[in-house]
Amino acid sequence: MFSFTIFMMKNFATLILLALFLFILQNGNRIEAFPDRIISSSSINQPYRTSYHFQPPKNWMNAPMYYKGVYHLFYQHNPYAATFGDRIVWAHSVSYDLINWIHLNNAIEPSEPFDINSCWSGSATILEGGEKPFILYTGIDENKHQVQNLAIPKNASDPFLREWIKLPQNPVMKPPIGVELNNFRDPSTAWLGNDGKWRVVVGAQNGDQGKVILYHSKDFVDWKVDSRPFFATDNTGVCECPDFFPVLIKGENGVDTSFDHQDPNFVRHVMKISYLSRLHDYYFLGNYNVFGDNENFVPDIKFTGTSSDLRYDYGKFYASKSFFDYAKNRRILWGWVNESDSTQDDIQKGWAGIQSIPRQIWLDKSGKRLVQWPIEEIEKLHDKQVSISKENLLSGSTLQVSGIIASQVDVEVVFEISEVESAEWLDPKGVDPQILCSKKEDGSRSGKIGPFGLLALASEDLREQTSVFFQIYKAPNRYVGLMCSDQSRSSLRDDLDKTTYGTFFDIDPTQKTISLRTLIDHSIVESFGDEGRICITSRVYPSLAIDKNAHLFVFNNGIQTMQISKLNAWSMKQAQIGYEGNISCV
Ligand SMILES: *[C@@H]1O[C@H](CO)[C@@H](O)[C@H](O)[C@H]1NC(C)=O
Ligand SMILES: *[C@@H]1O[C@H](CO)[C@@H](O)[C@H](O)[C@H]1NC(C)=O
Ligand SMILES: *[C@@H]1O[C@H](CO)[C@@H](O)[C@H](O)[C@H]1NC(C)=O
Fold first, then answer.
1. Closest Cα to atom 9, ligand 2: which residue?
2. Mind listing the domains of the chain with CATH numbers?
3. Is 15 buried (19+), middle (13-18) or exposed (0-12) by CB count in 10 A?
4. Could you read off the pLDDT of 505-564 as tens digits, one per residue?
5. Locate the Glycosyl hydrolase family 32 C-terminal domain: which residues (predicted)?
6. What is the pTM of this model?
């Protein structure tokens, strides 16, 4: 039997976050100017607080939306401690640009029998042509069962939607037959079918099978369960935060979840699952089938439980959610990024958990994976720029990128790949890329092409460094790249989780370059490899490479000389994140 308490203890770090939900509503007037004197973190006593990644003022954090010109970030939050708790609320911050944020009062707090023991994740859906936002969230009820509830804005004319009311019909969904009472949560954004009915999926578990369950409704309040699972995976445990959305076959624009999904010539579908048993966000590309009343999602490739499964991010990234931003016709993804220090450290810092930079996502031309790229708004924070072009990096060399604030930087480097045929041989079958990455000893063991890449948050003497790098191999009938983020030397402190992350990806032999963009922000190193096809996010806590003592290098430890065809790095300004009308914050 599954015990709720054990579940909570084991997973306290993860439950929390479960969901970001972004929701976007559009148009409308800006009522107030952005408060111009909000201050965010002070780095004096808080060297690890980020400067341009969203983090809550204090306490245990983690989860975002857009309505009438305003983006909303609702996140799972424990108001009482920097650890998980039994009275989780929906905290709320708003923004005009997804970069600068104003903290508001909590949007939803436990208060009724159907959510008295916590308000966990959910999603927002905008009904009636972008006029009516609804939140569907998981309540932990008086019996500690998981149920789904609805909330609507108290005053839809309030541009910030500060107050939310819970509907008297709650709960609107209870665990159906074949679903464990305490494993039924995280409703997705809803979509409208061609038959005029709303659909929503909810994550669940039965035994060891993870399930995604489909519900239908005509009025958004009265929901009927579909008894056949919409999607299921064996040996995975509970499916948290299912996110289901269409992507265009051609082009980088996003589409609304309700977009006419029947036409396979225009769209494919993505199912993202956060598997609690693995603490990673996996996604599947596939077909959304509607045959009469038989509706399901069939992935192109089934879950294997191996390193070949597709993940949004091969580092720290969980409980992500996407939303369609119809202000800019794009789909945006956010993930929750965990700490790598101890709970004790979190209590001392007074906070834990941050959000990734919002990423625009679309289907790669190959049709085989998604591409992710930091939203263009972050370029507003670009400050001083330095550039390098056409510079050779000989075998074993390291080049410092000077003239920037290396603790707070956006850097993009493009390496030329010449003679890909000379790459060394490796059959990736059965090789765990993460283990291979950790054997690279910080990228110092040489291969023919690579390791080459960046040393982020490095001390001057390189005793501390987080190396993000590639190596290229010749595999049977193809070329593969290995991308790694190695934290083993990220800090002189030894009480940290320094797991090295890595993954394989296909290299197109006609491809002449390979790129790496990394967003460095005090304690986060968020990397987008091969133009965003591969992402790896790490959390690191250097003891020397702090603030002005942090350095950034490009390196090549491969035998072959690598050319930097171009490198651009920008010091980043601090985002304005604070309370409404309160300058003495955080
Ligand atoms: C609703 O919000 C609008 C805009 O802030 C405000 O003018 C109005 O007084 C509010 N209505 C109520 C009932 O609070
Ligand atoms: C949070 O971080 C800890 C320590 O690094 C790790 O063991 C745990 O799996 C992480 N949880 C998630 C959801 O990433
Ligand atoms: C400003 O924020 C601080 C810190 O949370 C709080 O103690 C103070 O009461 C706030 N002041 C106002 C005017 O809201």
1. 279
2. 59-374 (2.115.10.20), 383-572 (2.60.120.560)
3. buried
4. 999 989 899 999 999 999 999 999 999 999 999 999 999 999 999 999 999 999 999 999
5. 377-571
6. 0.91
